[in-house]
Structure formats: C-alpha cells, structure tokens
Amino acid sequence: MLQIGIIGTGWFSRTHADLLVQTQDVRLTAVLGTSQEKADQLASAYPDARGYDSLRRMLDAGRLDAVYVCVPPMSHGDIERELIQRGIPFLVEKPLGVDLELPLELAEAIRSRNLITSVGYHFRYKATLDRMKAELEGQTIAMAVGEWSGGMPQVSWWRRQEGSGGQFIEQTTHIVDLLRYTAGEVEEVYAAYANRVVHTQFEGVTVPDVGSVTLKLASGAVASLTNTCALPSGVGRTGLRLYTSGGLLDWTPDRLEVTGTNRLEQVVDEANPYAAETDAFLHALRTGDTSRIRSDYADALRTQQVTYAALQSAASGQPVKIERL
Ligand SMILES: NC(=O)c1ccc[n+]([C@@H]2O[C@H](COP(=O)([O-])OP(=O)(O)OC[C@H]3O[C@@H](n4cnc5c(N)ncnc54)[C@H](O)[C@@H]3O)[C@@H](O)[C@H]2O)c1
C-alpha cells in the first residue's frame, strides 16, 4: 500500500487527489495547506487524509512514499529541499519555478540523491503524441508553429510576474515541452512581449498579456510560438503544428490531424492524460522502473531553461542562446 501526501489545497491538488483515491493500493494520507483550515477542508473530502499546516510536521507524522507538489510557481524551493533531504520521491506540477536558478539547484540535489521525480507535463501521455512521434519517423521537420491563447486565470498569483513567471513560463511551457518532445532541443530564442489589454481591466497586473517567441532548434528547424491571455473568458486555442517533409501534423489537446498528399486523417484522443501520468509515477514508486515517466525533473529543467530564456530575451531585446545542460 502506497501512502501519498499532497501539498497545496487548490484546484490542481483536488484533480490529483481525486485520481489517487480511485487507485488500488494507494492511500492519500496527508494534505498540507497554507493554513490548518484550508488543509482540513481538502483533507475532509478523502477518507484517510489528515490536514497539516507545517511541512515538517506532516513529514514527521508518518511514512509517505511520495508527495504531489501542487503549489503556485513562486512557492517552490523549501518544499522540494525538504523532500529531497528526506529522500521522498515527488511529482511536481509545472512550471518548476519562476526563474532558472532555483530549478538548477534542485535538479542537482535530485540527481545526487537519485530521487524518483515526475513533472506535470501531462500532454506527453496522450496517445496523439505517440502517433505524432510515429508519423515523424523518417520525416524532416522544417518548422513548428504553436500557440496558447485564452483569458487570464483568476487566481491572484497568476497576474504578478514574481508570482507566476508570466504566461510563457506558466502556461505556454506545455507547448515548449511538446516542441522539445517531438522536434528536439532548442538552441536559441528571441522574444517580444507587450501589455495590451489585461492591465486596463484588472488591478495589479504585471505580466505581459501578449508574446511572440522565435526559436531555433538543434536540428536546424525553426519554430514560432505565441501566447496571449488578453482574450475574453471562454475564448482561445491551444496547439502545435509541425510542418514536415511528409506533410502537416496539427495537434490540439484532444485531436491530431495528419495531412499529406491525398491523405487526411483525424486521430481523436479523449482519454485522461493525468491518469496515465499518475499510473507511470506510481509504477516507478512500486518497482523502481522509471521508464514510463515521460518528464522527470532533469528533463523539465530544459523546458524551464527555454521559457526563462524567452523572458530574458523579451527584457533585453536580444536573442538568448541556450547552453546544453
Ligand atoms: N498540468 C496541468 O494541466 C495543470 C493544470 C492546472 C494547474 N497546474 C499547476 O498546478 C499549480 C497549482 O495550480 P492551481 O490551479 O491548483 O492553483 P491554486 O491557486 O488553485 O492552488 C494553489 C494552492 O497552493 C497553496 N500553497 C501556496 N504555497 C504553499 C505552500 N508553501 N505550502 C502549501 N500550500 C501552498 C495555496 O494556498 C493554494 O491552495 C500551478 O503551478 C499550475 O501551473 C497544472
């Protein structure tokens, strides 16, 4: 029986908790919040869970085989340090932080402890990504075009640059991750960001609400990724298109469209990728076999490196080279 703890009491903690309690031979035993009240409130929804307002007390209270870290980007650091020091494996939600310095430090500590980790890049677990990779075999990727557009998430930390890191680090990170997963590593980025709409609608907005990022890939391919959070609620799109010698691969979260000469095929995948992500992590905890985990901390670090480089480029107006980690 695996005993799991969850850190954070927001939307995404619930999503993971709901999946964990439906899983055989798993008990959700501990929930950590920023207050006892918030922790107790979430814990009360699950039969074996107890709420805590102190990480140390939670970890001292009983064995945890792993912890799910579901806190906002600015809250990373002490949590992971304590888990690493105690040798407790963890699944951490993306992004790894608001900058690169902290993730670099944590990645080194994780590597030296050889700790099992998984990072919440759930789209990698979709069957459409397996299909995309299969379609790419023998093809040359010429170019990629991706986007993340929508309204501004209404959690207070998201609109502050030091809270979320901004949209490219917080949301578009998923598209950067899929670009790396399908088309390979990024070597250079150049970004232009601006504040157009959202700061006129809401108080205290310090994140840009539009961004356009050009990326050069190690393969020689080029990519263009855009994002905006300036759209009205409920409007937007998310996706990645690859232009290859074999045709066009047009991916959106529930569908892949494959177009070639005299060929058009739609692949629909509505399976829950969070369930597959959790299965892979739990399998690694039970067996030590980490091969089903599609993004661990060391891998996610490279995505963070690209999204943070884009922020630096937008600030300086200069292209930023990505050093191979
Ligand atoms: N992979 C995905 O599809 C996906 C989807 C949604 C959110 N997320 C990620 O999950 C993370 C959390 O998002 P959310 O929507 O649940 O946000 P949220 O604001 O709803 O919840 C965050 C929770 O973390 C708690 N918290 C903050 N600092 C803490 C600390 N030091 N210790 C304990 N608790 C702390 C807050 O009190 C809050 O309950 C974000 O990084 C977000 O990007 C991922």
CATH topology of the largest domain: Dihydrodipicolinate Reductase, domain 2
How many strands appear in the DSSP assignment? 15
- The fraction of residues in strands falls at 25-35%
Low-confidence stretches: none
Relative helix content: 25-40%
| Small ligands present | nicotinamide-adenine-dinucleotide
Quick synopsis:
This protein is of the alpha/beta class. The chain has two domains: 2-122 and 275-292, 3-Layer(aba) Sandwich (Rossmann fold); 123-271 and 304-321, Dihydrodipicolinate Reductase, domain 2 (2-Layer Sandwich). The protein has twelve helices and 15 strands.
How would you portray this structure in words?
Residues 3-121 form the Gfo/Idh/MocA-like oxidoreductase N-terminal domain. It comes from Paenibacillus filicis. This is Gfo/Idh/MocA family oxidoreductase. Residues 145-260 form the GFO/IDH/MocA-like oxidoreductase domain. This protein has 325 residues and is an alpha/beta fold. It folds into two domains: 2-122 and 275-292, Rossmann fold; 123-271 and 304-321, Dihydrodipicolinate Reductase, domain 2. The chain is 35% helix and 27% strand. The chain contains twelve helices and 15 strands. It has helices spanning 11-21, 36-43, 55-61, 78-85, 101-113, 127-136, 161-164, 167-170, 173-183, 198-201, 273-287, 297-316, and strands spanning 2-7, 26-32, 50-52, 66-69, 90-92, 117-119, 141-149, 186-194, 210-217, 222-228, 237-244, 247-252, 255-260, 263-268, 320-321. Strand 4, helix 4 (78-85) and strand 5 form a beta-alpha-beta unit. Helix 4 runs parallel beside helix 5. It is globular and about 60 Å long. It binds nicotinamide-adenine-dinucleotide (NAD). Nicotinamide-adenine-dinucleotide is lined by residues 7-13, 32-34, 38, 70-73, 75, 93-94, 120, 122, 155, 170. Nicotinamide-adenine-dinucleotide binds at residues 7-13, 32-34, 38, 70-73, 75, 93-94, 120, 122, 155, 170.
